[in-house]
Design a protein that fits this description.
Number of strands: 10
Shape: globular
Largest sheet: 6 strands, antiparallel
Order of helices and strands: HHEHHEHHEEEEHEEEEH
Number of helices: 8
Distance between the termini: 23 Å
Strand content: 15-25%
Radius of gyration: 17 Å
């Protein structure tokens, strides 16, 4: 299937949508991808996840993180078809426009497949794991099917990027409890909404988010692409997760310099 036409077409954002993102650091956009494109990538990415998945522990015997999803990284290196989606100019331009930067480059991609009966994804902020110098980061969360509430769509605490407390927590039972407690005493809106087919969300690396359990009998299939400002510099890692990310997603990058490795091409 030739999906390149849609994936290269620009998606126009209004000034109001950009302002909404800047204030809340998340946005959900409808009709970013069409049914035909999603059906194609649902099949292609599902096949690759089946091929690469090494999780064989029964879901009831895993910890909270293990129950949250099957997680496969940098699929663009594994499949030329998936590379077309990850390198989509349509998606990358949305990311650049929302961040209000001249261009973005890839940090990495990941498939997040929440199994039937899969547990919650605890509250967290992604950038806790990233050794990146600024907050000019954004993730496209791309459901490969319509995602009702009982399938565990992504939830956001709108505007919570302003909160520093809880940023230091890795995804865990502790992060779910402690960040939830902190957010309850704020006025930040907890956004829990289903995703229509073709709807894609974009969220900042520092906005707190979570997902509910998947209580359906079907896999919740999501592909994500993480972008950063094309001029993003590497900072000194502050935890083991950031050190691991440096070695894994931008090997060879140097502290204080623009991250420009073969794994981090400019996408727009």
């Amino acid at each position: 299937m030739n999906t390149s036409k849609l994936l290269d077409q620009h998606y126009s954002l209004t000034a109001e949508q950009i302002d909404f993102y800047q204030e809340n650091r998340y946005i959900k956009l409808k009709q970013v991808l069409d049914a035909e494109t999603l059906a194609h990538y649902n099949a292609v990415i599902s096949k690759k996840v089946d091929e690469l998945n090494r999780q064989d522990i029964p879901i009831e015997e895993r910890n909270t993180y293990g129950k949250a999803f099957l997680q496969l990284f940098n699929l663009w290196k594994q499949d030329e078809d998936i590379k077309q989606l990850v390198f989509s100019e349509r998606l990358a331009k949305i990311a650049a426009d929302l961040l209000q930067v001249d261009g973005v480059r890839l940090y990495h991609d990941q498939a997040l497949f929440k199994e039937a009966g899969g547990g919650i994804t605890p509250w967290h902020a992604d950038q806790h794991y990233w050794p990146l110098a600024t907050d000019k980061t954004i993730t496209a969360w791309i459901p490969l099917q319509e995602t009702p509430l009982d399938m565990g769509p992504l939830e956001f605490s709108a505007g919570s990027h302003e909160i520093l407390e809880g940023r230091e927590l890795s995804i865990s039972d502790d992060s779910e409890v402690m960040i939830q407690k902190r957010l309850k005493v704020t006025d930040f809106k907890h956004v829990i909404e289903p995703f229509d087919l073709g709807e894609v969300s974009f969220h900042s690396g520092w906005v707190f988010h979570r997902a509910g359990a998947n209580t359906t009998a079907h896999m919740r299939k999501v592909m994500t692409v993480i972008y950063m400002d094309k001029d993003m510099k590497l900072k000194e890692p502050k935890n083991d997760g950031q050190l691991n990310d440096w070695n894994t997603w931008c090997p060879g990058a140097k502290i204080g310099e623009i991250i420009n490795t073969p794994l981090n091409p400019v996408l727009y």
